[in-house]
Amino acid sequence: MGQSSGIGVLDKAVQVLRATTAAPSGLAELCAATGLPRATAHRLAVGLEVHGLLARDAFGRWRPGPMLAVLAAGAPDLLVAAAADVLPRLRDRTGESVQIYRPDGFSRICIAVAEPTSGLRDTVPLGTRLPMTAGSGAKVLTAWADPATSRAILAEASFTERVLAEVRRRGWAQSVAERETGVASVSAPVRDRAGQVIAAVSVSGPVERIGRRPGERWAGDLIQASEALTARL
Question: How much is the pTM?
Fold first, then answer.
């Protein structure tokens, strides 16, 4: 469960919404993910469906509804705006490609990039959707994901819960040739003002240039960048 607002029914409704972002959920899955009684989970899901915040798929399972996209479209993306200020400075310090990834169920989406002007790059086009099963960005986002999402990802991931525990302990993750042969990366979590991890900021480049322990080289810069992003939210 996330932060408590002190308004019980609102917090429970948000629990239901969050449960459906990991995967389409029937009533049994909602109850398992939220710990709510069946009657309560069903009542909240149906109410959210009426308002378009949830919808049902062909199998009758609940998933995020169209009204969420409508509401989101009307609000500025503060993280993207912050990235426009922070990422170029991180790129200039490291001389490498930098990205921000936002989790989306079992995937991560590149929502901001800054590329060096010359040299061999690890180019990730804006909007690219990558799996959560490999790479330093995936490790960061999975390390702080809700338990149900984390377990589902770990079932197919190239890393283990022991690796994620180490990521949480030191506050950053690295990878070498996990997502793509010859590419290494290091990532740190980006938190919102409430302390929730909402994204990962990453530096990536050729292994031959940044080495097989990129965390020793860039972790400090990544953490400074993540703190700067949080400060601008």
Answer: 0.68
pLDDT in tens, 162-191: 999 999 999 999 998 888 888 899 999 999
In 3-state terms, the chain is what percent helix, strand and coil (to 5)?
A: 45, 20, 30
With 0-12 CB in 10 A as exposed, 13-18 as middle and 19+ as buried, what is 156? exposed
Q: How many CB atoms lie within 10 A of CB 165?
A: 10
Q: Which CATH number fits domain 8-73: 1.10.760.10, 1.20.1630.10, 1.10.10.10, 1.10.150.530?
A: 1.10.10.10
pLDDT tens, residue by residue, 57-88 = 878 899 888 787 767 766 678 888 899 999 99
